[in-house]
Every structure is written in C-alpha cells, then in structure tokens.
Amino acid sequence: MIKKLVDYIGNPENVGKLKKLGYVSLVAVFISDFFVHRDHAIYIWDKTPGWGAFYGFVSCVIIILVSKFIGHQGGIMKREDYYDD
C-alpha cells in the first residue's frame, strides 16, 4: 500500500494532479475557516477568518529567510568543495 502511494507521488506524470489536489485542499481549508464560531476569541485577529493560514504562511516564509541568512552570512554553510582541499 505504501509502496503504491510513494510510486504515485514520485511519478513525474502525476505532478499536475498533485498540485491541483494541493491547491484545492488549501482553498477548502481556507473556506472552512469562515464557518468556525469564534465566540471564545479575545483578540481581533483571532476573530478574523483566514488569520491562522495567513499567520502560518508568513511565519514559514520568515523562518526560511532567516535560516538562509544565517546559513549564508553566518558562516554555517561551507563551499561545496570544502573537504577536498
């Protein structure tokens, strides 16, 4: 069962179908957020539909940018031929 799933996902012919499935699922989750009752929310951003998706996306982008900066400018990342010398 797992082998079939991995083979399906790894097949380059299925990339378009998987992208469409991913986009449809993202839109479905975002739209479903408009039907959640927010009586327990304290802050205004907790009452805004789609806030969790937006906050998660922005946080992910910031994490990626900061880690790339630390890797390239902070000296953590080395040249590809570092150990060849």
Can you describe this structure?
There is one protein chain. The chain folds into two domains: 1-35; 39-85. The radius of gyration is 20 Å and the shape is flat. The mean pLDDT is 88. The longest helix has 23 residues, at 51-73. It contains four helices and no strands. The relative contact order is 0.06. It is mainly α and 85 residues long.
Number of domains: 2
Order of helices and strands: HHHH
Mean pLDDT: 88
Shape: flat
Can you count the beta strands? Answer: 0
Report how far the terminal alpha carbons are from each other: 46 Å
List keywords for this structure.
flat; mainly alpha; 2 domains; 64% helix
